[in-house]
């Protein structure tokens, strides 16, 4: 029996209606930008396996460092104990994070890093004897699938069964360069009738909303408003972190820095699951007290797992290397050239780019998980490219180590796909 068939017996996949999508492709090996399936097919991983494997799959620099660490210390409780991989990682991170960030809290996936960001924002006010219970978020944001993260996500198409149990959230539109006054008016109305604890946002690019990009000056105005009203700002950089926007973090493009930053995805280069919630000294100080109950009583069994910390540290070293920084510049320039080539194609409605993230919208209406989307997805795989269209959006977020030839093939395949829709 093939792996594909054995899979069906006991496995339940994420974000899948198994009756409509019974088949999963069994991947047996991955190296660099290439995925290999059990039937011998090869695919270029043009979305870096959900934007995680930015240094290529099974990157030897990362795997060898983790292999060494494995012989030394595998796992240890992180309450009351500490270890060098976590300490080294914190030192490396603080050097590249926005200047106001000073403390790092560990967890193991993006949704959880958001839960922790939300809890920090709520408890920050609680510890100061101020009851603030409302959060502000963007209309089309996505922050994860746990309850707090679902609550702040605007993309709630599949959240129906849970909506009655959500946190109190007010929504604002993303800035488009023309709606600043509308947004600030809305914010003023919200704070008149609600006690707002925090504002959570994906800086510059909303990933799951199909790589929607928005105006950075408008975001800066919102962040300034929040600072003025003691609303804790939480940047969800789970997707945008570690070079995606051309700088280390998307927040680097914006003058007003967030109080809290959530990180995961590319953090470990895709090798091991890990997430971080970082914060400013001001946030941390609200929890630092002789009163034990003012502490942040949140923890996970695998918090700061030494192997994951080692993978993250090796990944950051790679990101900082001249080669990787040059690769990022090359991809940005290459996307720009492709954009010029494709933007006037009759099947293309619009294109956009931030850093290494490139997206185009097709000139047709499509359901997020509809038939045409499936046809496109199959066409890409049949052509040897793994791209995962979101509704009528096709986007690229390839590993930084993608070769010129591989990237050309991705572009060519997208262009060919335009003729089948
Ligand atoms: C993927 C993602 C999350 C959720 O991370 P998981 O590790 O899948 O739980 C949260 N926020 C953003 C912006 C994401 O892209």
From TrEMBL:
Localization: Cytoplasm
Q: Write down the top EC class of this protein.
A: transferase
Q: What name has this protein been given in UniProt?
A: Adenosylmethionine-8-amino-7-oxononanoate aminotransferase
Q: Which reaction does it catalyse?
A: (8S)-8-amino-7-oxononanoate + S-adenosyl-L-methionine = S-adenosyl-4-methylsulfanyl-2-oxobutanoate + (7R,8S)-7,8-diammoniononanoate
SUPFAM superfamilies listed in its UniProt record: PLP-dependent transferases (SSF53383)
Q: Which family does it belong to?
A: Belongs to the class-III pyridoxal-phosphate-dependent aminotransferase family. BioA subfamily.
Listed GO molecular functions?
A: adenosylmethionine-8-amino-7-oxononanoate transaminase activity
Q: What keywords appear on the UniProt entry?
A: Aminotransferase, Biotin biosynthesis, Cytoplasm, Pyridoxal phosphate, S-adenosyl-L-methionine, Transferase
* Residues annotated to bind substrate: 50, 265, 299, 388
State the oligomer form and interacting partners. Answer: Homodimer.
What's the name of its gene? bioA
Q: What does this protein do?
A: Catalyzes the transfer of the alpha-amino group from S-adenosyl-L-methionine (SAM) to 7-keto-8-aminopelargonic acid (KAPA) to form 7,8-diaminopelargonic acid (DAPA). It is the only aminotransferase known to utilize SAM as an amino donor.
The keyword Transferase is assigned to this record: yes
UniProt modified residues of type N6-(pyridoxal phosphate)lysine: 265
Q: Which domain of life is it from?
A: Bacteria
């Amino acid at each position: 029996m093939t792996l594909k068939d054995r899979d069906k017996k006991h496995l339940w996949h994420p974000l899948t209606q198994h009756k409509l999508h019974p088949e999963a492709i069994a991947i047996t090996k991955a190296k660099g930008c290439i995925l290999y399936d059990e039937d011998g097919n090869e695919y270029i991983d043009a979305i870096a396996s959900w934007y995680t494997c930015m240094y290529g799959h099974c990157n030897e620099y990362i795997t060898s460092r983790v292999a060494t660490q494995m012989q030394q210390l595998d796992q240890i409780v992180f309450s009351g104990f500490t270890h060098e991989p976590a300490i080294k990682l914190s030192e490396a991170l603080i050097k590249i994070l926005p200047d106001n960030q000073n403390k790092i809290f560990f967890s193991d996936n993006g949704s959880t890093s958001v839960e922790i960001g939300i809890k920090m924002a709520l408890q920050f006010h609680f510890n100061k004897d101020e009851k603030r219970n409302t959060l502000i978020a963007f209309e089309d944001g996505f922050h994860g699938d746990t309850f707090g993260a679902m609550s702040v996500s605007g993309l709630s198409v599949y959240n129906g069964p849970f909506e009655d149990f959500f946190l109190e959230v007010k929504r604002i539109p993303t800035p488009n360069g023309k709606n600043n006054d509308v947004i600030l008016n809305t914010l003023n109305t919200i704070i008149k009738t609600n006690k707002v604890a925090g504002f959570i946002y994906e800086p510059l690019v909303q990933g799951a909303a199909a790589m929607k990009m928005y105006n950075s000056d408008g975001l800066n105005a919102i962040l300034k408003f929040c600072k003025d009203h003691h609303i804790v700002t939480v940047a969800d950089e789970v997707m945008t972190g570690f070079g995606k926007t051309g700088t280390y973090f998307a927040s680097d493009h914006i003058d007003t820095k967030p109080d809290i930053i959530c990180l995961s995805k590319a953090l470990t280069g895709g090798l091991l699951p890990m997430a971080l919630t970082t914060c400013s000294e001001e946030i941390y100080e609200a929890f630092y007290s002789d009163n034990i109950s003012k502490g942040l009583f949140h923890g996970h069994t695998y918090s700061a797992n030494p192997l994951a910390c080692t993978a993250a540290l090796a990944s950051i070293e790679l990101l900082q290397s001249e080669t990787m920084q040059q690769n990022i510049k090359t991809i940005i320039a290459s996307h720009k050239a492709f954009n010029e080539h494709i933007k006037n194609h009759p099947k293309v409605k619009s294109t956009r780019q931030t850093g290494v993230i490139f997206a185009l919208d097709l000139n047709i209406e499509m359901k997020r998980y509809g038939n045409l989307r499936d046809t496109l997805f199959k066409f890409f795989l049949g052509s040897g490219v793994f791209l995962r269209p979101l509704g009528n959006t096709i986007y690229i977020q390839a590993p930084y180590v993608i070769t010129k030839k591989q990237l050309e093939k991705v572009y060519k395949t997208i262009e060919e796909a335009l003729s089948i829709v």
